[in-house]
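Sequence in, structure out. First:
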Amino acid sequence: MQPFTVHGESRNSRILITCDHATNRVPEAVNGGDLGIAAADMGRHIAFDVGAAGLATALADALEATAILSDFSRLVIDPNRGEDDPTLVMRLYDGTVIPANRHVDAAEVARRLNLLHRPYHAELARLAARRTDTVIVAVHSFTPRLNGRGLRPWHVGILHSHCDSRLSLALIARLRAEPDLVIGDNEPYDGHLPGDAIDRHALQTGRHNTLIEVRNDLIGTAEAQAAWAARLAPIIAGAVADIA
């Protein structure tokens, strides 16, 4: 079974939608398919980006674009981290200990890289290389509150690197024209992370790019995901046209 899903592969849009944290699935080959944490925790943002997969596929449909989605939990191995990132395999996340990761050694990390992480990135690279003008739009979601911290006020955050902010700044300008939205500029996280998926497939290759974070309580249902996709798609298309 492939560690990714490709949606709309035959489409020819220059926009490629990525969803690095699409699912909370734990493959059978990793600790028998169970990381040893409660089902409630596997349903939280620590295991995947809640609502992001539905939003990514709905956006791809609205933009007539291709989407690639991971098919393994970020707790197994995080496809949005470089291979040498110390947070590649998390042992503790937002207050939850991950028992199956507590004693993971270099050999097990290498096995998960070969089984999941590297095939995902190879497919993402293949899809991105189909056109010379590919634009990568990464779709993520964020929790309204981390344990012990304050509420996050943003509806949508746009993350970007100082190495290339062109598309992100165009997108922020268009989103801030929406009077009912609170938009984060590199919130709730900083957008520059050496070795992450955007760095690897966009910054290092000179492709236009942006990363969209939607607060996950806003996209908890298929209907909400479709509504947000319908709202965001023309804004994204407009921002791409702005920097063309």
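Second:
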Amino acid sequence: MTENGEEQREAAQTAPHLWKISSVAILGAFLAQMDATIVNVSLSSLALELHTTLSNIQWVTSGYLLALALTLPLSGWLVDRIGLKAVYLWSFAAFTLTSALCGLAWSANSLIGFRILQGVSGGLLAPMAQLLVVRAAKDRMTRVLSFAAMPVLLAPLLGPTIAGALLHFASWRWLFLVNLPFGALAFTLAALFLPQDRHERRPRRLDLIGLGLLSPSIVLFLFGSERLAAPAGLAALTLSALLFGVFLWWARKRKDEAIVDLRLFKDRFFSAAVGATFLSQGVSFAGQMLVPAFLMRVADLSPGGTGLLLAAQGLGMMISYPLVGSLVERLGNRLVSVGGALTSLAGTLPFIYLSGHGPAHTLIAGALFVRGMGLSCIGIPSISAAYVSVKRENLPMATTTLNIVMRMGGPTLTTICATFLGWRLTASATAPVSTAYGAAFVLLCGFHLVLCAAAMRLPRRAGRASAQPRPASAETGNGG
């Protein structure tokens, strides 16, 4: 039998197994995203029901997100210690249990406390789901990841509808209790379909000092980036930078015993992929901050009208996401990622024109649609390039690194753009507000250009050949 025929036979045998594993992983990521979305859009109702202020109940969301970030650095160590399947099952069990506790909360403070506990387990679900897909998919990683992104993309769209129905027909407690039947189903499917991976464990001592430096650094950064205008926010960012600097020194000293092995970055393709992932998250989140603010303040649209226009970006993403895998297989990681970066730039440039010439709803919708299509073509080629540039035994560490970068990319560029916008609004108090927004969109387009440059450093094609052990400086099998 020819080599090509052998590969087709192997693909036919593994496809059902692959899609079973992927479906279980997607369900976990979808539930975690849906839970966060449902709660986010229900804060006003929760404040009313629990007789507290909106600023206090906001910690139901903030506490969850900070706890989620706190556990990210642990994910790789836990997989090495007890295995991927065990971590996933424990995370799902804890997520379902804490959902029940949230539903039984008797006050705002108890709900906040239980949500923090839920965030500890929820913080592991997304990276574990990602690692499950990567391990199972192998050289079909980009195709599977592109489909896996669709349910997670739908969660923010379905969340407000589900939250509205639950609050209309039932108690607020069902915002959390609804997770119980789905959590039980997902846990059962994971126990049945996920393969045993105990043979892949590599138990190592927990780097407590590194964890004590990195986790608080991430939490303080996220806390500070949300409160930059307040003295506490600036202090948090300063302390975060100090802790992160000490962590880098410590991790270089500890090498493979560190909570995050910085030697992964010696591979130039991994470094390029991490950089592109960071920037793609950054331009996406910064745009999500700038565009709605522009539409409401400059275009004078209502929140409802703003939401309708923003749906164009989501539609663009939904159309292009399923195509990313096949595009990467035909054109390679570099071309697809660079094409996505240039397309998203093309969808952002019109806002500079609109800032100076007045809003045009048709142009805004078209630009957002193009921007959405472009953004969806950057992340998956970058992530898959990062994974195939490391050995299989280093996948848990690579997952930890990628998820930390993805968590920090958005707040970093959003904070920079928001600070710049605030400075322009203050410095040009006599000029039209649209002038400040035009300058902010110029800055955002500058970040898009940097993203294009980072995507140019990705391998042309991150295929099976590049997944083999090789020197750090070597090219991929199909050229770099």
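Remark: The longest helix spans residues 3-40.
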